[in-house]
Design goal:
The protein is an all-alpha fold. Helix content is 61%, strand content 0%. The chain has nine helices and no strands. Helix 2 crosses helix 4, helix 3 packs across helix 4 and helix 4 packs parallel to helix 8.
Length: 212
């Protein structure tokens, strides 16, 4: 990830100076994961529109962003989440949150299950299963495993404590393993998710800042 992060950081800086090709590179690197995250919030049918709205804001505000690739992913995820929640409010419905998340506050997982799973989880066909998790667990898993955020950055995105996010990710990954096992799922000793850029999502052509 270090090499990829360095390339993404360089592209972000160039995009901030108005380089359209650099902005396309940023879009291609971040969009599939961002779309996967948005799907956990609004569902398959509306995820493309909501993610497009997020990219409109990203393109508009990128000059004011400050930080490296990891902070950019967290910043973009926060924008996508806010757009998704706005969309949900306008539709008069709620995300399917499972249980009371306050019980997770300050409670870390018994072991670093999320860290272990992030080294091996193949995300291709797992997104549909992630959508079956309670909302807090689904968001924590996607932000950490698919988007690639650490617990602190994911917690900032969700407005929670890192311990709460670690616990939600721990529970979500445990449940995900059960779902995969019940389907006789694939061996998880495969590709690290951060290097699987597709995440089961077809990459569309990147928009330019002028188009936005």
């Amino acid at each position: 990830m270090q090499g990829e992060d360095a390339e993404l950081t360089t592209a972000i800086l160039a995009a901030q100076d108005g380089d359209e090709n650099a902005f396309r590179a940023v879009y291609r690197a971040v969009h599939p994961r961002l779309l996967g995250y948005t799907r956990t919030l609004v569902g398959e049918a509306e995820a493309e529109d909501v993610t497009s709205e997020a990219w409109l804001q990203i393109a508009r505000d990128i000059e004011r962003f400050s930080g490296d690739a990891d902070r950019f992913r967290g910043w973009a995820a926060t924008i996508a989440r806010n757009r998704a929640l706005d969309h949900i409010r306008m539709r008069g419905r709620r995300p399917a949150v499972g249980g009371d998340e306050t019980e997770l506050t300050g409670r870390a997982a018994d072991s670093d299950t999320a860290g272990e799973a992030m080294e091996s989880l193949a995300t291709g066909r797992t997104m549909a299963l992630i959508a079956q998790l309670p909302q807090d667990q689904a968001e924590a898993v996607v932000l950490r495993v698919v988007v690639g955020l650490d617990a602190k950055s994911a917690a900032e995105t969700l407005g929670k404590r890192p311990g709460a996010v670690r616990t939600a990710a721990h529970r979500g990954l445990k449940r995900l393993a059960e779902l995969l096992g019940s389907e006789n799922g694939p061996d998880l000793g495969g590709v690290p998710p951060q290097r699987n850029r597709s995440c089961g999502v077809t990459q569309s052509g990147a928009p330019t800042q002028k188009d936005m």
